[in-house]
Amino acid sequence: MNIQFAPTDLPLSRRLQTASVLQWVFSFLGLAPSCIVLFFVLMFTRFWLVSVLYACWWFIDWETPSKGGNRVHFLSNLRVWDYMRDYFPVKLVKTVDLDPRQNYILGFHPHGILVAGAFTNFCTYATGFRKLFPGLDSFLLMLPLWFRAPFFRDYIMMAGLIPSDKESASYLLRRQGGGNAVVIAVGGAPEALDARPGAFTILLANKKGFIKLAMEHGAHLVPVFSFGENELFDQVENPRGTWIRLIQDKLQSFMGISLPLFHARGIFQYSYGIMPYRKPINTVVGRPIRVEKNEKPTVEELDALHQLYTEELSQLFEEHKGKYGVPEDQHLIFV
Questions:
Q1: 151: Cβ–Cβ under 8 A, 6 or more apart, which residues?
Q2: Where in or outside the cell is it found (predicted)?
Q3: What is the pLDDT of residues 29-38, one digit of tens each?
């Protein structure tokens, strides 16, 4: 395999961009297990008191993730996220205003491998979410598993991440006065197994939990499509029905997280590694779908709103795909 090395005379800004994305990739792939190991290792050193005190804090703070987390605005506004934004680059595209007196559920599509667009746009202020949608605070849902990792749970809560369970989302959507935007990567971990360049497969056909959640709280639904999300990594071929996909599906159902076999570029070379490609991400926020509060919706009502959401998402894609290099004959594939 021919290896294409990075030039040695790259400007400092480019190297800082790479460093910022490297720390983000490590945070998602290696920081959680590292924190777990650190917690237990400290128990057997002279610093054992750190783990004991943290365990006491953990007990006291146990319900914080399900009650809006503990966002630190200063950290979301750090310069490091500007470098990460410029690495791809990432752009947040507004189509209409969102009334800050309402609560919203933003359906993010597609999931991609590491949800880079969702994190950059809704967990940091690098792309201007608060300026584009004044009065709204965004909260990105993440697998509850990660909130059981000591130290790591505090880090992700400071970025505006909350567990992807009904209790956590409902707490925010119940808030009077509005101003909360709950962001859900609807396809979830299973959709990551279909994420590869040129893929437009959306897991939505049987995803109705977020629809019911919106109806129960009267939260308006907003489809969001992130053009370029699937272009960041290559993935080992794993068509449905193959032994690789069967193993991945079994692990996903057992562990709750998917294990896509992905690769892209390296730090000092462009041929192989787990650093994402420098591909533009354009995250388009669509028109809100007005939802009336209905605490006990019927199956027919759920199906009707789900169909409307699917149509709005498809229309959003069709209206904007030409701007971002998607072929005219390419359409979303809903499964």
A1: 35, 38, 39, 54
A2: Endoplasmic reticulum membrane
A3: 999 999 999 9
